[in-house]
C-alpha cells in the first residue's frame, strides 16, 4: 500500500514501507496470488528508525559479517527485508556498513542485517490464519495457525557446548576472592564481558574445580550494589529473572517495575522458560504468585501475557487484520464513553512487534492521533505503564530501553536496582547494548556511560561502566 504524502524523511517511529508498504501479496508458494494492497509502489528507502526483528537478546539470522547493506534482489511479494541502515534521523550514508570499524564477528552478539536506524519492513501480506481466497475480499481465519516459533534468547534455551574453556577464568575468580582482601577489579574484568553460555559454563567450572559456590563466594566477599550487580551477572539471565521476580513479589508490596521489565514483550519461548525455571527454583507456579500480587483487570492483563500465546515473530502483517485491530482500539478508547481496558490489553499482548508497529502507524494515519497519547489519556497506574511498554517495544525496543534507563536515573536519587538490572539485561546481547547506547545518545544528547558515571561511584561505578562496554 502506498501512503499518499509519506515523506522521504519520515518522523521518528513512523514505519516506512519496503517495496510496497507494510502489506504485500502472499508468498509465492501459496495458490491464490493477489496484487499488493494498492499496487506495488516504487522501491524506496526512508530515513527513520530501523529495529531488528528478533526475540529478547537473540539476533536474527542475517548475512555474514562485512556484507551489511542492501538486501539481495527478491521477487515482489517474497518475505520483506529491511532497508539498509542509516544514521538515525538523517539520510543513509553511502557506506553500507553501520559500524565505522566494521561489524563485529558473527555468532553471539553479532549485529542483525540492519543496524540502529529505521524499522524493518513487514512480513508478506496474508491473513493471520490463511491466505485470502480471492483477489477482492479478505476473509481472515482464526489466529490458531502455527508459524515457526521464535527461538529462545541465549541463556533461555537448552545448555550449549561452545568452544571455550572456562577453567582459567574460574581460577582467576577464586584467586581474586581467596585469602585476605578481594581483587574487585579482577572480578569485574572476568564477569562483565561473558555471554549467557559462558557465564553458565564458568559457574559450573568454579564449582567443579574449587568445590565452592560462585554466587555464595561473591556475596561473602562483596557488599551493597556492587555485590548485587556481580550476583546478577553470575546467575545468568534466566536464573536472575527468576530471583528478581520472586523478590519483587515476596513480602509486603510488589515491585511492579520489575514485573514489567521481565515479563512484558518477551517471546513465548522465553516466557515458558521463565515459568519452568520459576517453578523449579521457587516450588510454586509463577502465575499463582502473580495472581496473589495483582488485582482485577491488571491481574487479567498479566494472565494474558503469561499465557505465552502472542503471535510469533514469523507471523505476518496483514492489512485487513491491522485495520480491524485499529478500529477495535479506537472503539475501546476514544470512540466510546469509558474504556474497554481488556480489549486494549488483549491486542497489545497478543500481537508481535511488526504487527504492533503497523497498528501504531495505521492508527495515526486514520485518527490523526498517536496511540501512545491515547493510552496515556485513557489509562492510569500500573496498567498504563505496562501498555506503554508493550506499545513502545513494538515501535522501537532500543529507544524503550534507553528511556527506561534514564527513568532509573532521573530525579532525586538513583533507582539502583532498576538501573543495574536493566543494564545487565541489555548487555547479554552485545548488539542490543550497542544499539541502546546509540538510542540513548540520540535522545538525551549524552553518552550513556557518562550518565551512569555521574550517578554511581567506587567499584559499583566501575562495574556498571564495564557493563556499558567501557574499559576497566
From TrEMBL:
Residues 1-143 are annotated as: Disordered. SMART domains: ANX (SM00335). Residues 1-18, 58-125 have a biased composition (Pro residues). Gene3D superfamilies: Annexin (1.10.220.10). GO terms for molecular function: calcium ion binding; calcium-dependent phospholipid binding; phosphatidylserine binding. GO terms for cellular component: cytoplasm; nucleus; plasma membrane; vesicle membrane. InterPro entries: Annexin, Annexin_repeat, Annexin_repeat_CS, Annexin_sf, ANX14. Keywords: Annexin, Calcium, Calcium/phospholipid-binding, Repeat. Pfam families: Annexin. Residues 44-57, 126-143 have a biased composition (Low complexity). Belongs to the annexin family. A pair of annexin repeats may form one binding site for calcium and phospholipid. This is Annexin. It comes from Neurospora crassa. The lineage of its organism: Eukaryota, Fungi, Dikarya, Ascomycota, Pezizomycotina.
Amino acid at each position: 500500500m502506498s501512503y499518499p504524502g509519506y515523506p522521504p524523511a519520515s518522523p521518528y517511529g513512523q514505519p516506512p514501507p519496503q517495496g510496497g508498504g507494510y502489506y504485500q501479496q502472499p508468498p509465492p508458494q501459496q495458490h491464490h496470488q493477489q496484487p499488493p494492497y494498492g499496487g506495488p509502489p516504487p522501491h524506496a528507502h526512508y530515513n527513520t528508525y530501523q529495529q531488528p526483528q528478533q526475540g529478547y537478546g537473540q539476533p536474527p539470522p542475517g548475512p555474514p559479517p562485512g556484507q551489511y547493506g542492501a538486501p539481495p534482489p527478491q521477487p515482489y511479494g517474497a518475505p520483506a527485508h529491511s532497508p539498509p541502515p542509516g544514521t538515525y534521523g538523517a539520510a543513509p550514508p553511502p557506506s553500507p556498513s553501520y559500524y565505522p570499524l566494521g561489524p563485529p564477528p558473527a555468532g553471539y552478539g553479532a549485529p542483525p542485517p540492519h543496524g540502529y536506524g529505521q524499522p524493518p519492513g513487514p512480513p508478506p501480506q496474508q491473513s493471520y490464519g490463511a491466505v485470502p481466497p480471492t483477489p477482492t475480499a479478505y476473509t481472515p481465519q482464526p489466529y490458531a495457525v502455527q508459524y515457526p516459533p521464535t527461538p529462545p534468547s541465549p541463556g533461555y534455551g537448552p545448555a550449549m557446548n561452545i568452544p571455550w574453556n572456562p577453567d582459567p577464568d574460574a581460577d582467576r575468580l577464586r584467586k581474586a576472592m581467596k585469602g585476605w582482601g578481594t581483587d574487585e577489579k579482577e572480578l569485574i574484568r572476568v564477569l562483565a564481558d561473558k555471554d549467557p553460555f559462558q557465564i553458565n559454563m564458568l559457574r559450573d567450572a568454579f564449582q567443579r574445580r574449587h568445590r565452592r559456590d560462585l554466587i555464595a563466594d561473591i556475596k561473602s566477599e562483596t557488599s551493597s550494589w556492587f555485590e548485587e550487580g556481580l550476583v546478577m551477572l553470575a546467575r545468568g539471565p534466566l536464573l536472575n529473572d527468576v530471583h528478581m521476580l520472586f523478590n519483587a513479589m515476596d513480602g509486603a508490596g510488589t515491585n511492579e517495575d520489575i514485573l514489567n521489565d521481565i515479563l512484558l514483550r518477551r517471546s513465548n519461548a522465553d516466557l515458558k522458560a521463565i515459568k519452568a525455571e520459576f517453578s523449579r527454583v521457587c516450588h510454586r507456579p509463577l502465575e499463582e504468585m502473580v495472581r496473589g500480587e495483582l488485582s482485577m483487570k491488571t491481574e487479567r492483563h498479566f494472565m494474558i501475557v503469561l499465557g505465552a500465546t502472542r503471535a510469533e515473530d514469523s507471523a505476518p502483517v496483514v492489512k485487513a487484520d491491522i485495520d480491524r485491530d485499529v478500529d477495535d482500539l479506537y472503539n475501546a478508547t476514544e470512540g466510546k464513553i469509558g474504556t474497554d481496558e481488556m480489549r486494549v490489553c488483549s491486542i497489545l499482548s497478543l500481537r508481535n512487534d511488526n504487527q504492533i508497529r503497523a497498528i501504531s502507524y495505521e492508527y495515526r494515519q486514520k485518527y490523526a492521533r498517536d496511540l501512545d497519547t491515547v493510552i496515556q489519556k485513557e489509562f492510569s497506574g500500573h496498567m498504563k505503564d505496562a501498555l506503554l511498554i508493550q506499545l513502545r517495544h513494538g515501535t522501537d525496543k532500543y529507544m524503550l530501553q534507553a528511556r527506561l534507563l534514564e527513568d532509573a536515573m532521573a530525579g532525586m536519587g538513583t533507582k539502583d536496582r532498576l538501573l543495574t538490572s536493566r543494564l545487565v539485561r541489555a548487555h547479554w546481547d552485545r548488539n542490543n547494548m550497542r544499539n541502546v547506547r546509540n538510542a540513548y545518545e540520540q535522545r538525551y544528547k549524552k553518552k550513556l556511560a557518562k550518565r551512569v558515571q555521574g550517578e554511581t561511584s567506587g567499584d559499583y561505578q566501575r562495574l556498571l561502566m564495564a557493563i556499558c562496554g567501557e574499559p576497566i
